[in-house]
UniProtKB/TrEMBL annotation:
<dbReference type="GO" id="GO:0003964">
    <property type="term" value="F:RNA-directed DNA polymerase activity"/>
</dbReference>
<keyword id="KW-0378">Hydrolase</keyword>
<keyword id="KW-0548">Nucleotidyltransferase</keyword>
<dbReference type="InterPro" id="IPR043502">
    <property type="entry name" value="DNA/RNA_pol_sf"/>
</dbReference>
<keyword id="KW-0695">RNA-directed DNA polymerase</keyword>
<dbReference type="GO" id="GO:0016787">
    <property type="term" value="F:hydrolase activity"/>
</dbReference>
<dbReference type="InterPro" id="IPR050951">
    <property type="entry name" value="Retrovirus_Pol_polyprotein"/>
</dbReference>
<dbReference type="GO" id="GO:0004519">
    <property type="term" value="F:endonuclease activity"/>
</dbReference>
<keyword id="KW-0255">Endonuclease</keyword>
<dbReference type="Pfam" id="PF17917">
    <property type="entry name" value="RT_RNaseH"/>
</dbReference>
<keyword id="KW-0540">Nuclease</keyword>
<dbReference type="InterPro" id="IPR041373">
    <property type="entry name" value="RT_RNaseH"/>
</dbReference>
<feature type="domain" description="Reverse transcriptase RNase H-like">
    <location>
        <begin position="171"/>
        <end position="278"/>
    </location>
</feature>
<protein>
    <recommendedName>
        <fullName>Reverse transcriptase RNase H-like domain-containing protein</fullName>
    </recommendedName>
</protein>
<keyword id="KW-0808">Transferase</keyword>
<dbReference type="InterPro" id="IPR043128">
    <property type="entry name" value="Rev_trsase/Diguanyl_cyclase"/>
</dbReference>
Amino acid sequence: MPFDIKNAPLHFQGIMNEIFPEALSKGWLIIYINDIIACSKTWKENIYRLSRFLKKIQSVKINISLKKYHFGFKELKELGHVVSGSSLGIDKNKFTAVLLKTIPQTKKEIQSFLGFAGYYRKHIKDFVSIARPLYKLCNKHTVFKMTVDRVKAFESLRQALTTAPLLWIADFKLPFSLYTDASGDGLGAALDQVQIINDKPVEGSIYFISGKIKPTESSYGESQMEFLCLFWALEKLNYFLEGCAFEVITDFTAVKSLIIMKRPKRHMLRWPLAINKFRFNITIHKNADGHYKIILIILLMCQKKLPHRSQ
């Protein structure tokens, strides 16, 4: 691939997609520009697929560097993550320099640190809650000063990177659990799944999302806000949940009645229609102030510095 050409990555990705259409459609080959992962469940399958891949590479006369290839590994480092067949973690080597970094002295250094930490936000419990003082400091109208709260936020966020949990790889043969919660600041949801680990059923997290409430939605009542949160979460996690049976866990009883409402308000007309294509049961957990609700509330987007409804 030629360097320093603006459209080179786009064209190279297109070429790779054309070379391996069958493998990509079956899902055992993953290509991101010049990074390629061939997935398999058994050693025999691994040898067979690698053989097919290498023969195809040879036939189209593409050169590869064997020094950069790793064969037969159960775990790989890719794009700052550690990927295995069951989980997604953070590559600890990527933030060694960050752990040794002193307290930022400029807004640019704060923004750089937040950008790095934000890349791993879905792994960090209480990310927005911890980072909020630093995001406020990035406001152009805020005078730069590392107060006690901001220093504490920096240290806490840096420490959180070293203890970030693994996210499980979804098993689409098993049911999901979707936890939703809304507040005056925003929307939040967590997708979980119970998988068998060492012959025991264990519930683990697969994905966290959070979003900011739009100005037009700020006047919604509590019941409408919870319904909006469910609608929004299902849209965001559509590629996990459509066609699967799952359970929705919420702490607001009115969500059930809103779904079957005969005369919804105008701004709610499309919500039931969009939700009806999913197959789920609703479980009401009153006063659900445990692990998930805490995470969902504190993962809400920072009002000014983060875009609307990003993941």
